[in-house]
């Protein structure tokens, strides 16, 4: 039976990928709620004209037919909404960052353990990139041996004139490492097979927007576990000449080879996306990966129905956010 979805919060554009991919998998959705005006609202109404906006989110949460709540509210508000949803007996897919403070994370852990509901963070730079699906297949097949390091970069265009007020409020967006770099933390844990790690270095700064003292345009961190090492760089420095929002890349170093992913563009060849480069003892190749698929969404549907953890282990979601929040704390200490 198809899952019925509810939407709480459309403040970030990631809601389009979250909802669109779930609908493409056969889910259905009737209603959405958001707190006040959102910069995405006009586009959301145009994209999903048959969905009804409700003024009271309890109409969604109290609907016994709703199985899964999608949340893309302002980052600082996501934990409270997820807790409310889980307390109402709903599973949750939340945009990253799933939470912004240690206190929120502790509350989420307690409610998830008590209710048994799913709290899944949609790390879209892994779950919505076919090249990452193909890299996962290759790593699992032993194409580069044992993974010893990941190097992930997440550059973005600023587009400051189009940003809502919360984008510049540190208490609302959570900081650049908690927010953007949670993607790269997720990828480090996943590809190294780490279930825990520690932050060994973290730094943030604001060098381009002094008029917005709460804004951070650069962040980096180092990670270390018993399985490998990770380096993360995120920023808001992408130049306007790039035809997309950022040149997101992932480098996966193994004992017998390496993989590079150029997720959203390939410099000088802007039409190329989802390109994977593989070098090992036998191969030196590039691969187009647009056909690799995005299994996260179908797996999450199965998890909701079967009470399994095939899309992402529950502990992984918590650990990824714990490390991102700790890196943010360390950088600002």
Task: Provide an overview of this structure.
- This protein has 333 residues and is α/β, with parallel strands linked by helices.
- The chain has 2 domains: 4-122, Rossmann fold; 126-294, Dihydrodipicolinate Reductase, domain 2.
- It contains 12 helices and 14 strands.
- Strand 11 (249-254) and strand 12 (257-262) form a beta hairpin.
- Helix 4 (75-87) runs parallel beside helix 5 (102-115) and helix 10 packs across helix 12.
- The N and C termini lie far apart (49 Å).
- The mean pLDDT is 98.
- Keywords: Oxidoreductase.
- Residues 50-123 form the Gfo/Idh/MocA-like oxidoreductase N-terminal domain.
- This is Oxidoreductase.
Short description:
The chain is 34% helix and 24% strand.
Main attributes of the structure:
333 residues, alpha/beta, Rossmann fold, Dihydrodipicolinate Reductase, domain 2, globular
Report the order of strands and helices: EHEHEHEHEHEHHEHHHEEEEEEEHH
Outline the biggest β-sheet: 8 strands, mixed
Number of separate domains: 2
The side-by-side strand order for the widest beta sheet comes to: 8-9-10-7-11-12-13-14
Q: How far apart are the first and last residues' alpha carbons, in Å?
A: 49 Å
Average of the residue pLDDT scores: 98
**What share of the residues does DSSP label as strand, in percent?**
15-25%
Radius of gyration: 19 Å
Q: Care to count the β-strands?
A: 14
Main CATH class of the largest domain: Alpha Beta
In the predicted model, the low-confidence regions spanning at least 5 consecutive residues are none
InterPro entries: Gfo/Idh/MocA-like_OxRdtase_N, Gfo/Idh/MocA_oxidrdct_glycsds, GFO_IDH_MocA-like_dom, NAD(P)-bd_dom_sf
GO molecular function, one term: nucleotide binding
Domain Gfo/Idh/MocA-like oxidoreductase N-terminal: 50-123
Domain GFO/IDH/MocA-like oxidoreductase: 133-259
